[in-house]
Amino acid sequence: MKQLSEITPYVGDSMTYLYDGSSSERLRTCNVYAFHLFTDGPGEMEVDGRRYPIDKRTLVFLRPGQAHAFHISSQHPLSSYNLYCDLWEAVRPLSVNRSFAFAPNQFQAGTLATTFPCDELDSFPSVFSLQPYPMLYDLFITIANTYSESRFYHNEAANSLLYAWVLNWYNTIHTHQPTDYRIVRLLTHLNNHPERRESIESWSQFCGLKRTYFHELFLRETGLTPKAYQHKLIMKRATHLLLECDMSITAISEKLGYLSIHPFTRHFSSYYGVSPSQYRLHPKIK
Q1: E-strand spans in the chain?
Q2: Residue 286 β-bridge partners
Q3: Residue 286 lies in a domain
Q4: Phi, psi of 17 (to 5 degrees)
Q5: What is the span of the domain harbouring residue 226?
Q6: Which of 176, 123, 91, 159 is nearest to 2 (CA)?
Q7: Under 8 Å CB-to-CB from 86, ≥6 apart: which residues?
Q8: Are residue 165 and residue 191 in the same domain, yes or no?
């Protein structure tokens, strides 16, 4: 049984394509792995006889030989970033000359791209929304553009980026991620400014929510209370400052919004098990 970290991605082709309901979009199979990222909707995607809705930022992941069809209206064409790739063969990849077989004639494609048993890869859904995950969405487009537009080393760069993207996608699927757009927007604000001593009330207003519901929603989305989440960010920022600059510990505590060094030292020691000065001398990751 292979691990997902053992994949050796090879991007054979990257293209943007406008699906407009033409005959070439009927039921078919492809002999390599394919990713289709739709920038808009609505439409429908058929995979192994099951239909899925296509909305804004819908990702479709197809395995070699998997039957699929695009059900898109000619009145509302949809644009997609398409990647055709091998995931286990970088020496003799088939994706550089991918082939399709259309139903009902010769429905099975010829030689299929190399596959191995891999439970982690099998856990990926065929259709997945990237709408709540802007980092994954932007990185996928970066891969497509890197392959298409880079003058030098476009294969090497795209292959490395796809490897990182696949592992990040796995983490996204198997780790709880906040999806409510109001909480996601607040988390971006908090990550950028963890040292700001803002009130719960100001955060709930930022999200446009009543305080009680905001607290419940934040806890459900992150697993932490708002103040506990901010405290985690402050402690993480503290370790960065201790290791990356020569500021005194007193100056660091002030930069992080503490009125004096004493509560900062107490909080840091409680969180990491060592004092700030000890951490600076002997870093350890919690």
Answers
A1: 10-19, 28-30, 33-38, 43-47, 50-54, 58-62, 68-71, 78-86, 100-102, 127-129
A2: none
A3: no
A4: -145, 140
A5: 181-281
A6: 123
A7: 8, 9, 10, 12, 32, 33, 93, 94, 95, 113, 114
A8: no
Pairwise CA distance, residues 80 & 251, whole Å = 50
Q: Could you give the CA distance from residue 61 to residue 44 in angstroms, rounded to a whole number?
A: 14
Q: Distance between alpha carbon 38 and the CA centroid of its chain, in Å?
A: 15
DSSP conformation class of 283: -
**Are 132 and 49 found together in one domain?**
yes
The last residue of a domain, from among 174, 204, 230: 174
Same domain for 248 and 138: no
> Could you give the 3-state DSSP secondary structure of residue 70?
strand
Within a domain: residue 35? Answer: yes
**Per-residue pLDDT tens for 80-92?**
999 999 999 999 9
* Domain edge (last residue) among 114, 141, 174: 174
3-state class (DSSP) for residue 136: helix
Residues 21 and 150 in one domain: yes
Tens digits of residue pLDDT in 75-128: 999 999 999 999 999 999 999 999 998 888 777 767 999 999 999 999 999 999
Shared-domain flag, residues 15 and 138: yes
In this structure, are residues 110 and 33 in contact, taking their beta carbons and an 8 Å threshold? no
